[in-house]
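Milestone M4 deliverable, item 7.
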Amino acid sequence: MGKAHVLAICVPAQGHVIPLMEFSVSLAKHGIKITFVNSESAHKLVVNASSDTKDDDIALVSIPDGDQPEILKQVIENINATDGDNKITCVLADPGLSWAMEVADEMKIRRAILSPFAATLLVLKSSIPKLIQDGIIGEDGTPTKKKTVLLSPTIPAIETSHFSWICYSNSELLKFWLFEYALRCNKSMKLADKILCNSNYDLEPAAFEMNPKILPIGPLLTSNQQTGNFWAEDSSCLKWLDQQATKSVIYVAFGSATTFDQDQFQEFAMALELCNRPFIWVVRPGFVEKQSEAYPEGFEERVGGRGLVISWAPQQKVLEHSSIACFLTHCGWNSTMESLINGVPLLCWPFISEQVHNHNYICNVWMVGLGFNRDGVGGLNIARQEIQNKLEELLGNEKYRENALDLKEKLRNSIKQGGCSYSNFISFVEWLKEEE
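Output delivered:
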């Protein structure tokens, strides 16, 4: 009998690849063999950005972009034919890849999904049939009227305009894709033997009570091995942080997909200048058009040594650094979890999908951050004075950091031996190693 062998596959987006890769690294450390399948486009980015560190128990494989059930089936059959002692024993997929669950089901292989977003979002998605039945949304997911929905007495009310497949998107194509993704998640949950979530009982207890099949195994921490980054990390910022005062630096990163137009980019740059505090600002390729010309005239000279602009950061290492005062973020779930596990308060600027939901928890439930008042067309333009004022408010009130540090202790205890997330992880490893 060979090792348990997991085929891991996810949506080819940075926020989905990183947690599945990190989870795969953790499984490999417990003697599980991993074949990590990415789309060709994502595979190239990950390989180009990765270090030379190799793991014999993690094989990186690519398949053509798009839904490829027949090709995935062929990959599994080829592995089983050539590595008879280590046949694929489980398919671990992003919940949006219901077709991967269907392939595993057809081939009589164990099935698990790992949600890269909050458990409450899984509960919301599974409520779609009832939301349609109750006339709250149409068959296409569009809200029929403005109202709030209470999934449970202990889950914060969600405005229908803030549903993950609706909020802040003016693109009908994007709304369609996000709603399709939600429906696919529901299919995956029905087919999966195990539903895992990069979350924690202390963050969303009501969601786990509503669906006890969802098992929290987070926060997943980015390791020093393969992390699934699409861009090479600029670690020089860590030396720069070593030279800054404790809790003095504003860390700014808006994830892998957010974009600014030039007016908002310049307005934000001026806000950082007005704050007169040290900052690290991650401006990845494609964040703004004509990037070299986008900064306000003289900006780089005026901020001098107190401002550092880089293309991509080793975010986990940055957030655990003692010099970080706060995190100005788009509220992606990975970024939120990485901030909480390090006790760093957040300033929230959500853009699309589940980010508004995460913002609600950060500001109104966990009380570890603040949001902005929006005053522009489509709710996307935020003035420099508003940014400056909220930064000063966040950094001037110690309660936000105290709350964040309290959550940090709970989250770190949960991933230690004996903690809930640790126990769920070990139970999953033992399940993978069981002989059928």
